[in-house]
Structure formats: structure tokens, C-alpha cells
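Issue 218. Parser rejects a valid record. Input:
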Amino acid sequence: MIGNSLRWELNAFVGFIERQKNLYRRYWLWEAVWLLYNLVSVLSIGYLAAGLSTLGLEKGQADLHQTQLYLLVGALLWTYLSLVFFEIAFAITWERWEGTIEYTFMAPIKRLTHLLGMSAASLIYGIARTAAIGVALVFFFKLDLSHANWLAAVAIFAAATLPLLGLGIFTSVLPLLSPEKGEQMAFAVQGVLLLISGVYYPITVLPAPLHVVGILSPLTYTLDGVREALLHGLSLASALPDIGILLLMGIILVPASVWCFNRAEVRAKRLGLLKRSG
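Output the parser choked on:
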């Protein structure tokens, strides 16, 4: 009797292992995405050390305070950028959780209105939360921003809004394409952006292929420009090239992302993927 019960539980145990193996095989591409995310997270730490050495910290040449400012400004900006990115990218997932996605997609409004409304809410929330964190940083670390050019920093920050919205809308397409794993793909996209955009180190420490991709990332210009404005008083005139690049990227990314979202919406409706929660 005990032997039969033990054999039954053992069969069930092996069955669960088999089930998970089949799930991994079925969604092998998404598992590869998670592997990529883990890889870039580890690489980011490695390049952080390399970046610090380029700043001269390793040889004692850099001002520790400046290095601290460099890292804190990068972390604060990344907090804002990643928050807005995720709030937009996860809008479809939120709709599924709340059970309102079908009603939203049937509402007599333009999809552009829907996407821009969500984006505006995300931007307002992101700015408010980042401001609160910024105040805390100044309080805890006694940051010296006496040389900051706030006008140039705000101008770059505002110009970065457009490409950031485009990236967020592009990523929000993923839950439409794959209800089961689409939202998790956003973490992989975030990991890649974190690696290539120079959040904690100059992108010059990256190997050539990643360096080239980093040059194409709008977050690179946002981080570099705002850092220069806050830490070294970059003038508005000197910031114009970065502002122009960001605006051009936004003009390309926003319409392209809305078009892709519309195509993904048509596919999701045709295949009945809207209400599935994965």
C-alpha cells in the first residue's frame, strides 16, 4: 500500500518535471530572452567597473564626489526612463488584469488618443516619483549642483520624451503578440537598454558592436546630455545637437510604433488574444 502510494507520488513528481520541460520547449524563444536579460545584467556590472577605471577612480585621479554624482545622476535618470517605459509598455497587461481591454479596444476613439493618454499619465507619474527620489538624494548625499545648467537639462529631458514614448509603445506591442510571455519581454528590452545606453558607465568601454548599438539608443543622448548639463554646466547652445537627434528619433519612432501597435491590434482581435491573461 505504502509502495503504491510512493510510486504514485513519484510518477506525479516526474510528471511535473516533464510538464515544465514541455513548457520550456514550447516557449524556448522566451527562455532565450530571459537568458539574454540575465547576461546583460551581469555584463552591466562588469562594464561599471571598467567605466570607473576610465574616470580615473582606480588610479586615484578622479574626484570621488564627481564619480558619485555621475552614478547617482545616471541612476536617477534611469529610474525615470525605465518607469515611464514600463508604465507604457505594461498598459496592455494592466488592461488584461482589470478585465477592461476589450471595452477599451471597442471604444469609439482613435488608437492614437488611447496611446497618448496612457503615455501622458505615465510621464506625469514618472516625473512626480523621480522628483521625490531626487529630493531624497540631495538630502542624503548633500549633492552639489551649483554648476548645473537647469535650462539645458530640462530641454534635453523634454526632447527625450518623444523617443521614449516611441520605445514604450513599441514594447507594448509585445503583450498583444504573446499574451503568455509578452510582458516579460519588456524586462529583456529594459536589460538591453541598460547595457548599451551608458547608465552607469561611458559607452566607450563597450565592445565595438555594443558601442554602435549604444549610439543608436536615444537614452544614450539623454543620459550624456543631462549629465553634462547638471555636472558641468553644458550650455543650451551646446546641447542643441543632442536635442536635435532626440527630436528626430522621436519623429521616427512615435509614428512607427503607433503603426506597429495598430497592426498588432488587428492580429490580436483576429486570433482572439485580447482577453487571455497568459
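Fixed in the parser; the record now loads. The radius of gyration is 22 Å.
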